[in-house]
Amino acid sequence: MGWMAIITTYNPNLTLLAFYLYTLMTTTVFLTLNATKVLKLATVMTSWTKTPMLNATLMPALLSLAGLPPLTGFLPKWLIIQELTEQEMTVAATIMATLSLLGLFF
């Protein structure tokens, strides 16, 4: 949400793109968790034997939601970083990218 908040004034279309992709990824994760009847992350491992395809979908969806570079969730972040750089807000872009990397780690 912070990514969308920082770019809203500079490029509203980019904000909408980020929102739509975020909504799509979040919906995928929640529908997968609902279909597998998972209430805790610890039970994801036990549901692997029952629904392997849904669990195989869940892991890339979670990584995409975090914004890992080769996945869909990275695209809006990359475009926002480019827009911030064009607006001469390189310090803000660097801080956002660094904090995003820390979020991936934890």
Automatic annotation (TrEMBL):
**EC number(s) per entry:** 7.1.1.2
* KW ATP-binding (keyword) present: no
Q: Which GO terms describe its biological process?
A: mitochondrial electron transport, NADH to ubiquinone
Q: Where in the cell is it found?
A: Mitochondrion inner membrane
| Keywords recorded for this protein, A-Z | Electron transport, Membrane, Mitochondrion, Mitochondrion inner membrane, NAD, Respiratory chain, Translocase, Transmembrane, Transmembrane helix, Transport, Ubiquinone
Cellular component (GO) terms are: mitochondrial inner membrane
Query: Which transformation does this protein catalyse, written as a reaction?
Result: a ubiquinone + NADH + 5 H(+)(in) = a ubiquinol + NAD(+) + 4 H(+)(out)
A matching Pfam family: Proton_antipo_M
Q: Name one GO molecular function term.
A: NADH dehydrogenase (ubiquinone) activity
| Topological relation to the membrane, as annotated | Multi-pass membrane protein
Please give the superkingdom of this protein's source: Eukaryota
List each copy of the NADH:quinone oxidoreductase/Mrp antiporter transmembrane domain by range: 1-102
Membrane spanning segments where? 12-33, 53-75
Matching InterPro entries, A to Z? Complex_I_Subunit_2 (IPR050175), NADH_UbQ_OxRdtase_chain2 (IPR003917), ND/Mrp_TM (IPR001750)
Q: Does NAD appear among the keywords?
A: yes
Question: Sorted alphabetically, which PANTHER family does this protein's record hold?
Answer: NADH-UBIQUINONE OXIDOREDUCTASE CHAIN 2
Q: What does this protein do?
A: Core subunit of the mitochondrial membrane respiratory chain NADH dehydrogenase (Complex I) which catalyzes electron transfer from NADH through the respiratory chain, using ubiquinone as an electron acceptor. Essential for the catalytic activity and assembly of complex I.
User: Record's family?
Assistant: Belongs to the complex I subunit 2 family.
**The protein's name in its UniProt record:** NADH-ubiquinone oxidoreductase chain 2
What organism is recorded for this protein? Ptilinopus luteovirens
